[in-house]
Design a protein that fits this description.
By secondary structure, this protein is α/β, with parallel strands linked by helices. It has seven helices and five strands, in the order E-H-E-H-H-E-H-E-H-H-E-H. The chain has a five-stranded parallel sheet. The chain binds shikimate-3-phosphate.
Length: 170
């Protein structure tokens, strides 16, 4: 098992927590490449995430997500912005831990997450307020397994990046 901390940061958290936005800024600040897992999946399939869900269903999406993660986790240095469900799949948690990278959970209050996701067409798992809340409740125990939790409440992306850099673990 690889116990050395690699120059590899995984950003995780629920839909709307700012993984892509913070990831882009963090990667720019560090001068590291950003790998946005959803973007990688879309490029590989030539389809949007919504189309993949509609055409082939969630189990297929989870398979290709795991394959994309396997590839992405070989990169170094890199900031990897995960999808909201990536770190809630036990095989992905194992893979990420084995990779020797650092995991950072971008935590955000449910009402803020909901407000950000409402009206957006590109999130097939956002159906209604009740299922959204249930999904969040189901996933928080996984998110808690992250090495670090950074609250994004009331913070601009720049401030979240500063918090992450202050962890000084990579
Ligand atoms: C998902 C979140 C999405 C995307 C897919 C599934 C989820 O990513 O991977 O729609 O299971 O919560 P974002 O968190 O970037 O929206």
């Amino acid at each position: 098992m690889n116990r050395r901390r690699r120059r590899l940061i995984y950003l995780l958290g629920f839909m709307g927590s700012g993984k892509s936005t913070v990831g882009k800024l963090l990667a720019e600040t560090l001068g590291w490449p950003l790998i946005d897992l959803d973007t990688l999946i879309e490029a590989g399939q030539g389809l949007t995430i919504r189309e993949i869900f509609e055409n082939s269903g969630e189990p297929f999406f989870r398979q290709i997500e795991h394959a994309a993660l396997t590839e992405a986790s070989k990169a170094e240095p890199a900031v990897i912005a995960l999808g909201g469900g990536t770190f809630a799949q036990p095989p992905n948690v194992d893979l990420i831990r084995e990779s020797g990278g650092t995991t950072v959970w971008l935590d955000c209050p449910p009402e803020v997450l909901r407000a950000r996701c409402e009206g957006l067409e590109n999130r097939p798992l956002f159906r209604d307020a009740q299922s959204f809340t249930q999904l969040l409740v189901d996933r928080v125990p996984f998110y808690r397994l992250a090495d670090f939790r950074v609250s994004t409440e009331g913070r601009k992306p720049e401030e979240v990046v500063e918090q992450i850099l202050s962890l000084r673990v990579f």
